[in-house]
């Protein structure tokens, strides 16, 4: 089938990251024909890096979705409004007069909250006679699933070229951490505490995070801070899989950290009404289900930025759980996850 995916980039990189991962999955795993319309091609190209010629995917500027509205463009079978972005009016008008109307999908943000299952797959009211459905990603079976592609490869895979010089700055005997967080996260205090563990740490600071720390201000003899440029999405996955601990944020790196099978802190996207606390707790309810109470407390505290001095010695227990969770989400999404469930839903 032909799909038009509309990606409006609000801020950060997740909108582009998710849309690109979905487009690539639909095209390569399900042989679908994709047009990805984006209002900020610069950010999208950062995510895609050198994959712009991928078979089955056309990446186009947002306005080209309606510019040739005079002779109706080849209309798609499915239109995906990522994160419920509004469609360009002239594009919507061309659909309304089309003989064969596409199905509209509102792709929502990922949440582990239980109510998601009640709203997933439900039709949206008053849509000018178009069929529009809400599609909620999620961890549970009766939701839209997770974007899993590509599944983590065995971790013997050699270091990607974008990370060669960066990875070489790390030491053989150190513990390795990656940090990709929002400006408001208490990273500095967290690192002061980590430094008191008196163990050698190599800390990979993702794009933009080094500036947040103004590095010259600190004296942490046990921490070797390595700042990184923005690297290709799949290479960032490699880093998550090869570090001992990761701090991730948003939605896509949050999923990739779980697929990496390593302990992690999720710096959730802050919302001024505090809704992010509910979202974090809803995730922890799933992540910690059936877990030893001591480990539950440890992970909950760590996810709420309690200093690593209090729990770092228990890391092997958390690593074992992280590997168990990795297998559990892959098994639960063996139906192809978000991309597979979307294709089946639309068919
Ligand atoms: O960038 P984010 O904070 O995006 C967020 C989320 O999408 C969130 O749901 C949304 O509400 C908010 O934006 C507006 O975090 P996220 O989701 O992890 O997206 C980052 C993407 O960038 C992800 O696909 C990984 C990728 N990435 C790289 O490709 N290279 C890099 O060097 C880094 C650090 C990230």
Describe what this molecule looks like in 3D.
- The chain has 13 helices and 11 strands.
- The protein is α/β, with parallel strands linked by helices.
- It folds into 2 domains: 148 residues, Rossmann fold (3-Layer(aba) Sandwich), CATH 3.40.50; 165 residues, 3-Layer(aba) Sandwich (Rossmann fold), CATH 3.40.50.
- The protein has a 6-stranded parallel sheet, covered by helices on one side.
- Strand 4, helix 3 and strand 5 form a beta-alpha-beta unit.
- The radius of gyration is 21 Å and the shape is globular.
- The termini are close together.
- The model has no long low-confidence stretch (mean pLDDT 93).
What would you say about this model in short?
This protein is of the alpha/beta class. The protein contains 13 helices and 11 strands.
Q: What is the H/E order?
A: EHEHEEHEHEHEHEHEHEHEHHHH
Structural class: alpha/beta
Largest sheet, spatial ordering of strands: 3-2-1-4-5-6
Distance between the termini: 9 Å
Q: How helix-rich are the residues, as a percent range? A: 25-40%
Give the C-level CATH assignment of the largest domain: Alpha Beta
Beta-strand proportion: 15-25%
Core attributes:
single chain, 347 residues, alpha/beta, Rossmann fold, 2 domains, six-stranded parallel β-sheet, five-stranded parallel β-sheet, globular, binds 2'-deoxy-thymidine-beta-L-rhamnose
SSE diagram, text form:
Blueprint: E1 2-7, H1 14-30, E2 33-38, H2 41-48, E3 57-61, E4 78-82, H3 89-96, E5 103-107, H4 116-119, E6 132-135, H5 164-168, E7 175-179, H6 187-195, E8 201-205, H7 209-212, E9 223-227, H8 233-242, E10 245-249, H9 252-259, E11 264-267, H10 275-287, H11 293-303, H12 315-332, H13 337-346
Parallel strand pairs: 1-2, 1-4, 2-3, 4-5, 5-6, 7-8, 7-10, 8-9, 10-11
């Amino acid at each position: 089938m032909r799909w038009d995916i509309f990606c409006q980039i609000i801020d950060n990189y997740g909108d582009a990251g998710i849309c690109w991962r979905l487009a690539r999955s639909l095209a390569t795993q399900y042989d679908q024909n994709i047009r990805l319309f984006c209002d900020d091609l610069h950010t999208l190209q950062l995510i895609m890096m050198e994959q712009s010629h991928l078979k089955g995917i056309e990446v186009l500027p947002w306005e080209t979705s309606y510019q040739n509205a005079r002779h109706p463009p080849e209309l798609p079978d499915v239109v995906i409004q990522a994160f419920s972005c509004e469609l360009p009016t002239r594009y919507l008008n061309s659909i309304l007069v089309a003989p064969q109307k596409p199905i509209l999908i509102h792709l929502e943000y990922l949440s582990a909250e239980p109510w998601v299952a009640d709203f997933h797959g439900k039709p949206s009211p008053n849509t000018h006679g178009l069929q529009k459905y809400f599609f909620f990603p999620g961890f549970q079976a009766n939701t839209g699933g997770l974007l899993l592609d590509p599944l983590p490869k065995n971790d013997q895979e050699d270091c990607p070229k974008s990370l060669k010089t960066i990875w070489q700055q790390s030491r053989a005997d150190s513990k390795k951490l990656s940090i990709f967080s929002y400006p408001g996260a208490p990273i500095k205090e967290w690192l002061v505490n980590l430094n008191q563990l008196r163990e050698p740490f190599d800390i990979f600071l993702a794009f933009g995070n080094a500036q947040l720390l103004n590095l010259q201000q600190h004296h942490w003899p046990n921490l070797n801070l390595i700042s990184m440029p923005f690297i290709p999405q799949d290479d960032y996955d490699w880093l998550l899989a090869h570090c001992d601990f990761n701090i991730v944020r948003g939605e896509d790196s949050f999923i990739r950290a779980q697929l990496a099978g390593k302990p992690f802190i999720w710096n959730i996207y802050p919302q001024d009404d505090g809704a992010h606390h509910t979202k974090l707790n809803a995730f922890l309810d799933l992540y910690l289900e059936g877990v030893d109470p001591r480990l539950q407390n440890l992970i909950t505290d760590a996810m709420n930025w309690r200093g690593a001095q209090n729990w770092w010695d228990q890391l092997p227990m958390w690593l074992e759980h992280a590997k168990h969770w990795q297998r559990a989400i892959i098994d639960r999404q063996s139906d192809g996850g978000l991309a597979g469930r979307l294709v089946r839903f639309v068919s």
